[in-house]
TrEMBL record:
InterPro entries: Pept_tRNA_hydro, Pept_tRNA_hydro_CS, Pept_tRNA_hydro_sf. This is Peptidyl-tRNA hydrolase. It comes from Dialister micraerophilus DSM 19965. Gene3D superfamilies: Peptidyl-tRNA hydrolase (3.40.50.1470). It is found in: Cytoplasm. TRNA binds at Y18, Y68, N70, N116. PROSITE patterns: PEPT_TRNA_HYDROL_1, PEPT_TRNA_HYDROL_2. Its EC number is 3.1.1.29. It catalyses: an N-acyl-L-alpha-aminoacyl-tRNA + H2O = an N-acyl-L-amino acid + a tRNA + H(+). It is an enzyme of class 3 (hydrolase). Monomer. The keyword Nucleus does not apply. The gene is pth. The keyword tRNA-binding applies. The record marks N13 as: Discriminates between blocked and unblocked aminoacyl-tRNA.
Length: 194
């Protein structure tokens, strides 16, 4: 009998025009995780692309909401309600303006920090007690607005930093699934990040 479930969500926007943009880091991490762990058979369910696996007797649902970033919570809330998954068992992968480019930070709860995807999830779950795997994208430069920055693609040395961070997050999720989230936080959070 399955007594525990997790929902692991990568945030992003559907559509070719958004591929590899800073706001699609959550999608990119799940793609990488899928490749590393040979996950296929993604299907459409409740406005998300999902794939389900068993891990040590626990059912894990990986989801990429297709509702666009600002409405991510619609899909996540519906899936959580359908499967009766508690907020504490939901892990969300997203970009973060307030972290330096390529820095990774894992947190068990917290504010949305201005991130519309996280705001939407909080509103639909009525909780901020879900785990976040955050990848730093830094603040806009060269007079760009926040929207231009998050919907733009990284360039120059930022590409490598973000790709390495995405690898680190995929690895941290594997580690957290084998061990637990606290050990993953201790091991993967950069102590120099403020």
């Amino acid at each position: 009998m399955i007594n525990k479930m997790k929902l692991i969500v990568g945030l992003g926007n559907p559509g070719k025009e958004y591929e590899k943009t800073r706001h699609n880091i959550g999608f990119d991490v799940l793609e990488l995780f899928s490749h590393r762990n040979k996950l296929s058979l993604w299907k459409n369910f409740m406005n998300s692309e999902i794939v389900t696996v068993m891990n040590n007797g626990e059912k894990i649902i990986f989801a990429k909401p297709q509702t666009y970033m600002n409405n991510s919570g619609e899909s996540i809330g519906d899936i959580a309600k359908y499967y009766k998954i508690e907020p504490e068992d939901i892990w969300v992968i997203c970009d973060d303006l307030d972290l330096p480019v390529g820095k990774v930070r894992i947190r068990k709860k917290g504010s949305a920090g201005g991130h519309n995807g996280l705001k939407s999830i909080m509103a639909h779950l009525q909780s901020e007690n879900f785990c976040r795997f955050r990848v730093g994208i830094g603040h806009p430069k060269n007079g760009h607005t926040v929207i231009e920055h998050v919907l733009g693609r990284p360039y120059g040395e930022d590409i490598k930093k973000i790709e390495e961070a995405e690898e680190k997050v995929a690895e941290s999720i594997e580690f957290a699934l084998k061990e637990n989230i606290d050990k993953a936080m201790n091991y993967f959070n950069d102590k120099k990040n403020k």
